[in-house]
Write a structure and sequence with these properties.
Blueprint: E1 8-14, H1 27-31, E2 38-45, E3 50-57, E4 61-70, H2 74-84, E5 89-92, E6 96-98, E7 101-108, H3 115-123, E8 127-135
Antiparallel strand pairs: 1-2, 2-3, 4-7, 4-8, 5-7, 6-7
Amino acid sequence: MKENKPLTIGYLKERKDKKLFTLPIPEDLLLNLEEKRNILIIQTRSTKFLKFMVYPVDNDKIIKITIHGRNKPSKVISNLSDLLKSLNVVHTSGITLNESQFSQEIYLDQTEINDHLKKKLIKIEGIKVIIDELFIE
């Protein structure tokens, strides 16, 4: 499988951090977000745009699952849906198709994934799974 570039980049910040953004975002928009301790910022970029999504989160650590596979993602989607439905999914990139490969990124507002789930994810046929942890910067 050829090396894939990340679909998104995630940053975890404390909610009280005054340097969340240096963009002109009205403070009342940030203050009106659901009251949680931290903010997860997901950045998506291409040559045509730059997009930020901002999510209030509870934890000081976020789990990012990256999935790369080949050919038909329909079986993979079904298997993933069953595994992830009990988890606190904050953001998913959706499935991105590129030639005969697909990618997806999933951010979870939790600090751990149990070993049983890791083994099940890794055993899904036809995919490569990468599990990363994001900490407060």
